[in-house]
Amino acid sequence: MRDSSSRIVITGVGLTAPNGNSLSEFRANLLAGVAHISEIDVRYMGKLPAGVCNFDPLKYQKRKDIRVGTRAGSIGVYCAREALADAGVAPEALKKDRTGVYIGITEHGNVETENEIYNISQFKYDTKFWNHYHNPRTVANNPAGEVSLHLGSTGPAYTLGAACAAGNVGLIHASQMLRLGEVDFAICGGVSESVRTFGIFAGFKSQNALGSHPTDINKSSRPFDVSRNGIVISEGGCFYTLERLEDALARGAKIYAEISGYCINSDATDYVLPNPERQVECVRAAIAKAGLQPRDIHIVNSHATATPMGDIQECEALRAVFGDDCTETSINNTKSYIGHCMGAAGALELAGNLPSFDDLTVHPTINIDQLDPKCALPNLVINTPRKVAKVDTILNNSFGMLGINSTLIVKRYFA
């Protein structure tokens, strides 16, 4: 077992989002205020706003791999290979049995099951037309398993079901496994294929929580705006390579940031509605674990999904933690650009803020035409990027259904 005090650092980032297929493209669009929401045809429901990725799955996979595997698996393979390339690690150079793959998901398997049922319905439900790859496609460990198969990695590879907190949870779990000495190298983050299932659209529609805009589809996701009306469902993925600091330094790796503090807790109060008190406890615990005070946090990426009550309750929590003395704490939101990428949301939102360590710029929350007074936050960055004097710490909030909360803090690497 390793020393639990080992410092864990981020050395590579690979992603695909509705508005970018690399960190540089994603960041450029965040700073330029470029959202990208599409209109897709959802079975039984018609055309609806959604965030759809436009990466090239054939960059790393063969057509047979794509045909046999899943959309989440293809997103995962793309993000894993991009992260490894960014970290300067060739797949064949990995220590296969000492590499862990830890991927956060919101849900998995619904896409395949819905599609198979629909397909055999065209043949009077004759199960001889049922795809014989259905079982490996739908098991919960599928996205991580497809990455492991692609890389030939033989260490632990599994998914972590944590609803919309899952992206953060993937990084947190990987950090813990590295500190425990279970692995020497980790590929981690979150993935979502949610736009491929009508069930999640129908579920949010039944809750009156499906976002739209009467004239501009790219304003369908508008957290904190007084006219917000719900979530825009999106797909995406973001994977990181994590290493112990001494290993990263030994191979001369570039270091994006150091994992500083984190917390995962549960509301234990409601299936859907968040509990601001538990969110406060989660954020404060992560800050304390990092050895910091709230005023030491320079950027807070809010989880806000553009649901009327959810945004208000999170703002209550943020005001309780980041009071009047947190004058250097800027708050932003990323879902206003890409919608809600579910299991990938936290990982993507952290990535979008990482370049702030270098350019000292906070990307804004866009699509706020009229700020809801109940969502007014000190130093909320709205519609225009903000230059700041210092960015040494970034706090990333991700919360999910059934009351799971996650907060992850990364800091600028100092030797």
Describe the structure.
- With 415 residues, the protein is of the alpha/beta class.
- The protein has two domains: 8-250, 3-Layer(aba) Sandwich (Peroxisomal Thiolase, Chain A, domain 1), CATH 3.40.47.10; 261-402, Peroxisomal Thiolase, Chain A, domain 1.
- Helix content is 33%, strand content 20%.
- It contains 14 helices and 14 strands.
- A ten-stranded mixed beta sheet has the order 5-4-6-7-1-8-14-13-9-10, sandwiched between helices. A two-stranded antiparallel ribbon has the order 2-3. A two-stranded antiparallel ribbon has the order 11-12.
- A hairpin with a 3-residue loop joins strand 13 and strand 14.
- Helix 3 (71-87) packs across helix 6, helix 7 packs across helix 13 and helix 10 (276-289) packs across helix 11 (308-321).
- The radius of gyration is 20 Å and the shape is globular.
- The mean pLDDT is 96.
Short description:
The protein is of the alpha/beta class.
Descriptive keywords:
single chain; about 425 residues; alpha/beta; Peroxisomal Thiolase, Chain A, domain 1; ten-stranded mixed beta sheet; two-stranded antiparallel sheet; about 35% helix; about 20% strand; globular
List the helices and strands and how they pair.
Layout: E1 8-16, H1 23-32, E2 38-42, E3 46-50, H2 63-68, H3 71-87, E4 99-105, H4 110-121, H5 134-138, H6 142-151, E5 157-161, H7 166-180, E6 185-192, H8 198-206, E7 236-244, H9 245-250, E8 257-266, H10 276-289, E9 299-301, H11 308-321, E10 330-332, H12 335-338, H13 345-353, H14 356-359, E11 361-362, E12 386-387, E13 393-400, E14 404-411
Parallel strand pairs: 4-5, 4-6, 9-10, 9-13
Antiparallel strand pairs: 1-7, 1-8, 2-3, 6-7, 8-14, 11-12, 13-14
Helix pairs in contact: 3-6, 7-13, 10-11
